[in-house]
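Hi there. Long-time user, first ticket. I'm pasting a complex I've been working with (about 568 residues overall). I'd like to know whether the download I got is complete or cut off, because the file seemed smaller than I expected. Thanks.
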Amino acid sequence: MSAVIEARNLSRWYGNVLGISEITLDIEPGITALLGPNGAGKSTFMKIITGQLKANIGQVRIFGQPVWNNRHIFRRLGFCPESDAFYEELNGLEFLTGLLSLYGYDRKECLDRANRALELVELKDVSRRPIRSYSRGMRQRIKIAQTIAHDPEILILDEPLSGLDPLGKRRIIRLIREFRDAGKTVVVSSHVLPEVEALTSEIILIHNGKILARGDIHFIRELLDSHPHMIRVKSPQYRELARLLAAEEYVLNITFEPEASAVVFETHHRDRFFNRLNELVLDPGLDLEEITSPDDNLQAVFDYLVGR
Amino acid sequence: MKEEILRVFSFYFFLGRKSGRTRTFFLLSSMAVLMALVIRTYRLAGHWTEDGQVIFQNFLMVFFLQFLIVLLGLFYGSSIVVEELDNRTLPYLTSRPVRRAAIILGKYLAYLSLTTVMLVFAVFLSYLILNLDAEFQAKDLLTVLRYSVILWLGLAAYLSFFSFLGTWLKKPILVGLAFGFGWESVIQYFPGTTQKLSVAHYLKSLLPQYTSSSGKLGFLFIRLEPTGPALALAILAGIILVFLVLACLLFTYKEYLFED
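Hi, the file is complete. Here it is re-exported in full:
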């Protein structure tokens, strides 16, 4: 699959403060999540790829074209900025039709598209209420509506789930997945790990303006050979299980959780560990109630990579 | 480009009509109407003897020319970019398929239209209030039309200059106030060519010259060495054009950062 967004050696400073440094990456259709703490450089990267800022060094191309001042690209791009900013005098419908009119659609087309977007974010009922009266979640949803109303091929969403209640988050996650299923390219940033996990496993970890890692969460986890995998097994015979596995050279550490009848193993070789676990289940007939990987999530990967 | 300007114009004209700022400045412009009503009442009561035309000319010089068009130009012109930065709404505009120059020109025209309505409303109404009597003639309407066109030119020139200032500076209001009510108020009274470095000079050159019967505020025309009407018009048009082009160029190539 060819890259839709190509960034080459992107660097950007704000005076003496580093925004991003030498970021090179290709983004293909599907959902790609930028993950990093506040100030990591996610927003700077997004502002550069949406033509809001210029890179000091490097270049970014979308569909093979430079972005800065390229209005042809903007027609194919939807940008949801992080800031909670609106033309407060307007109601939701006016906000959307006003912005849609900038694309050159006629009045009817603007209304149709605005209504469709309002339906998608479930704000149709309040579309004639002033935006200033909207709750935080509604404001976030109207911001997403303006991103999708012109049916762009690329969506750049800066912290799109912030301020949403769990139901609102689920709706937006579903919507973003629908865009992915429609073959669009979605770049989404977040510093909240479960949000990213719910959206995609294709992640780019950013910290201090640099890319720490990129890839599928499991792939990234595999890269971290210096950090053991944690595998928690819940079993009524957890002590027996620990005894049998303690002899294996790839098991580095064992921690008991007697109150939960569970044991946590640390290993560098997950595959070998699971093969042996399978044998133990079949051969001595151990009962296993639950197997989980407490650290096989983005938080763990992120913590490892930034050395927490 | 024309179509893009029109799109931006429509959006911002609509937005401007709904904004609290428009209501505030409309009320401020209406002060002239209120003052005209008060003066007319005094005149009817016999407490004010000066001719309506003379009173209106004083109005024109003090309220409209030296105050209202400068203020409207300053607050609308300088806000073209700054309001988007302060409200953090700039990305909504700069991520749309319109040229950046079209954003400046579209907003400029939208704000010029809004302020023109305020200005023309106040000028016509205050003129009529002060002059509408048995002696009122149709040609008097031509006089007020001429005044309105001159003031409109001044408004367009100030709006253009302050648009440039707002595109260039992060905090243009203080510099704008110093220019509009400092430089402009003082420099127009300097002798020789120095006075030609003010917009007000060219506007005054286009207005009927004051005579000894020009009322209490005739002194505002002292030291005026008027520029010919054609040249004054050309220079005002030049000011509008040059500063709009500069604002467009600056906005096209400059990047804008939010405070944090």
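A couple of notes from our side: Residues 21 and 293 of chain A are 33 Å apart (CA to CA). The first strand of chain A starts at residue 5 and ends at 14.
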